[in-house]
Amino acid sequence: MSDPLSRVGRSTLSRRRALGLTAGLGLAAAVSPSLASAGPAAAVSPYPKGQRPRMLNVFDENSLSLPERTLATTLQGLMARLGGESIYLNLPTLGYQYWLDDLVSRYGVGVRTGDLWKTVWRSGVRGYVLFRTGTPSVNVATTLAGVTGAVAIEESLEALAIRNGLRKVLDVRDKDDRWVFETYWPRLRHDVAVEQRADIPERLRDYVTMAGTLAFFDGNSEFRAEVVDALDDDATVIGWGDASRGEDAFIGVNSAAGVKALPADHARNLSVLSGIHEDRLEQRGGGGGRALEPEPDAHYVSFLITDGDNIQWALGDFPTDPRWFGSPRRGEVELGWGISPSLIDLAPSVMRWFYDQSVKDRWVVGPSGGGYMYPSRYPSAALDKHTASLATAMGRADLSVAQIIDFDAFDNTRLWSSYLKHPEIDGLIYLEYSRYDGLKGRVVWSEGKPVIAARTMLWSGLDGADEASVTAELNNATRNPYSTAGYSVVVWHAWSKTVDNVLSVVDGLAPHVKVVPPDTLVRMVGKYAKP
């Protein structure tokens, strides 16, 4: 196979220059993602961002065939480098309709019904990378679309692509992720990579192409470890790995290499959503998360959902499903929700929407900060880099508390100092990997700030984690807000419990048990329950 880029000497080709190569393919190829992210928040963004869209060609995702979705999303990524006109894949029953409506009403973005091949022609893209369904070549083609400025075309669409004026740049049908890694790694970003299965034709592929990243998936193999090890300190793997033997099988490998994960393998439209810039956002609900003057004979409790680091969920059915933020009963009590601080860059309009919809709701950072990792396994230099970036994002997003998931690390206050030395972070909520409530509400202190272990949890099928048991434990807990024993964090399992389950516990609480948001509880512990 002829590779038009192989004639450029790899040893002398800088990443920035490589991402700007046009290979005669049209205007979209001429803009480097590193340059396209210039804007008000670019100086503080740790993630590549698209340019702000002015007009979106909207497609119902289900109206496109699987090969058309790959074409559409790789084109979307290229167009997002320039801003102006782009593509939006909508799923009207999920949050994507909310985000589209918000782009129109708040940010003045225009919309029209999409016509795929007319959009291809207007884009100026004139080349394609050929791949075959059912093989790793879809990841190869997605990656090389970002390098070459060509779209990814599945072989069943090749004749149609040619009729619409596209010419073949590369044929990668016999290539795999290792080949593209070994051949093109110097020309790809080293601060972000995307882990995506080959059987998912569209999700995240727009962001791969826009950002100029590597797309890969190889289970929990030696090759995967090699990719992760080649990334920068505190780089991000966006997507999800092979969790068939537990998520720690790959999150542990990431952590040892000083790399975090953002669960996002089903996320759409990040290239478009990242094109919005919000330098700072402010939470509106829950009394501002301020410390309350405690009642002397009370016990204070916060209810906090698990899995707040999950970007695909936040973008998808989390805002619409009645189990979660879409519950008609949300607002009856002050609840704690987790959110990824990466949204301030990757989807700031989405974060703003959640804040605007929150009356009694308060938000904290999901595990374990800027992304999912185990702090005790992170190299110390990478951890300091991580927490510095996290503190900046938390300040911009009005977040003051972060959840942590780790293994037997609770008493290692040196780890927590890396977080809590930053003034933006008031405290941490610690979840032991198994069980989350294994430390039964213990508190340790670092930098004069609390690290609070979950006291109990709501989780179907686990002993003591049912509604009746949690209600009884809270009603019998210590009634002294000047002691750390006077406070409880209850984590409720997102996938087996709902807002209704939480409210059934709240309805059974004795009058002396007071429900407060988690950031309020952390501030009260820090102010009134000093060691």
TrEMBL record:
InterPro entries: GxGYxYP_C, GxGYxYP_C_sf, GxGYxYP_N_1st, GxGYxYP_N_2nd, GxGYxYP_N_3rd, TAT_signal
Keyword tags: Signal
Domain GxGYxYP putative glycoside hydrolase C-terminal: start-end pairs: 298-525
Location of the GxGYxYP putative glycoside hydrolase first N-terminal domain: 56-116
The keyword Iron is assigned to this record: no
Cleavable signal peptide: 1-36
Source superkingdom: Bacteria
GxGYxYP putative glycoside hydrolase third N-terminal domain location: 191-275
Annotated ranges, domain GxGYxYP putative glycoside hydrolase second N-terminal: 125-188
PANTHER family recorded: EXPORTED PROTEIN, EXPORTED PROTEIN-RELATED
Name of this chain's protein: GxGYxY motif-containing protein
Native organism: Kribbella shirazensis
